[in-house]
Amino acid sequence: MYPAINPELVSNLEKLGLTENEGKAYAGLVSLKEATAREVHELTGVPRAKVYDILKTLSMKGFVEVRQGSPVYFRAVDPKHVIGRIKDEFFTCAIEALDQLNELSYEIPRSSPVWCIQSEWGIRKRVREILDNVRDELIVFSTNPEFLGEFESDLKKLEKNCRLIIIVDDLKKFKGIPLDFKEVGKEFGDFVRNLFIDGVQYTEDCFIIADGKESIAVHMAGDKREAVVIRLPMVCHLQKLIYNWLVEGGFTIGTHQ
Amino acid sequence: MYPAINPELVSNLEKLGLTENEGKAYAGLVSLKEATAREVHELTGVPRAKVYDILKTLSMKGFVEVRQGSPVYFRAVDPKHVIGRIKDEFFTCAIEALDQLNELSYEIPRSSPVWCIQSEWGIRKRVREILDNVRDELIVFSTNPEFLGEFESDLKKLEKNCRLIIIVDDLKKFKGIPLDFKEVGKEFGDFVRNLFIDGVQYTEDCFIIADGKESIAVHMAGDKREAVVIRLPMVCHLQKLIYNWLVEGGFTIGTHQ
DNA sequence: TCTATTGTTACTTTAGGGGTAACAAATGTA
DNA sequence: TACATTTGTTACCCCTAAAGTAACAATAGA
Fold it and tell me: Do the Cβ atoms of B94 and A87 come within 8 Å?
């Protein structure tokens, strides 16, 4: 059993670029002040056949001084100098790398965290995922009872587990769904039923905000369904807007069972 | 052939602790700003099967941000932050290692670069090595013609190739050796012939200074021969002392052929 | 439903570092 | 001078990490 060199020290020296045996040998020499290779081996456990090459490598790195003779004596260079040298080289390297990276014309992209999903199956799967991950609160807005009806069972479960708010444009359309609904004011209802963007009519099948963190907007663009997933920080803002609409816009409060 | 990421940049990032493929992927992302895994693969050449795990590893290290979706998009964290983080961790490690090394009670050893040789053959071999390595100047002092005579041929060669100064305590003793000698003053001669250290008589068979860099002192301690090899910086000082002795002490100048 | 793309897994190869045994050279002793 | 001991070196083996490839599973789009 070799008397241990502090394993943490060896680990730190490895992080600084030395191999395990180099770290042991150097630490051993620091401890012994001046020593033969055999003494370094006996203290540190570095194999005797390896210790000569390792000390030679350390010498070539400038971390160890050698006194030729038989036996050869080795002496550690002052740790302050060794660590200083390692730090300097690392710094030089870091600055150079930073310059090279900066030359790659780095710019933080400004695009918000938005993804488009264009397949029907993908949209439904993602909606279901979002519903599955709700913890505290879910806000739903819909103008399409057929689409919303697909998630009736999911929503029934959520009623029990979190604060569920479902807002629709027209209560009459959703009376076949056994859930509690709120209705937006007529003005807003008319607004969402008459959305045109670039000559294409949009209808908002579903807009969901989960826990104020993530939202998905499912809409028809012309005759193509598309979903957009949106994350922080816009979502919280949208959430507040919708709450405000609830309070200020005024709308018929009705429920169906 | 993949469009190369600057190999020097990759090498620098490796020195900073990233693997080769991690460095390539990170640099690729910095260059692309925001990209899919396939785009990173196409730019950098990192194998497509590897690139997902590598980007995930970089993400866990905090060097890359991930936007979930299909496909997943990746974005590089600002290099200034990444390199700053790496430097901070390295610094912490370096300081800790230095503290640990200092706890080993390191002291620069004060012993001068001196080695002892105790075998007759070793002494002769080392003297011969030193004579073989002379370039410009050799200073020899001796009180033992038998010992000095062993190196007559070596010294004859040196006469032609460098500045050779041989000083002896008594010219008469060395007349059988075909070399030019100088004789020390009587006072010094008496001194070296009557050296006692710890009750043991020392006789200086030979003292050699080669090129002002290395010296070997061969002496009898009692009835045991011993050699001491000495290196910088004391040697230059001794050399100057001897030169001064030559000039100031005054000694009979004689030569034998 | 089929095709293309994305993402993952399993396997192989290479290089570097660590360990051991044995040998050559040097030193010390009788 | 010969022998024993110590010093210093070489050859070989093993393991791990990283890199590369082929194939498969999952997902998205038409």
Answer: yes
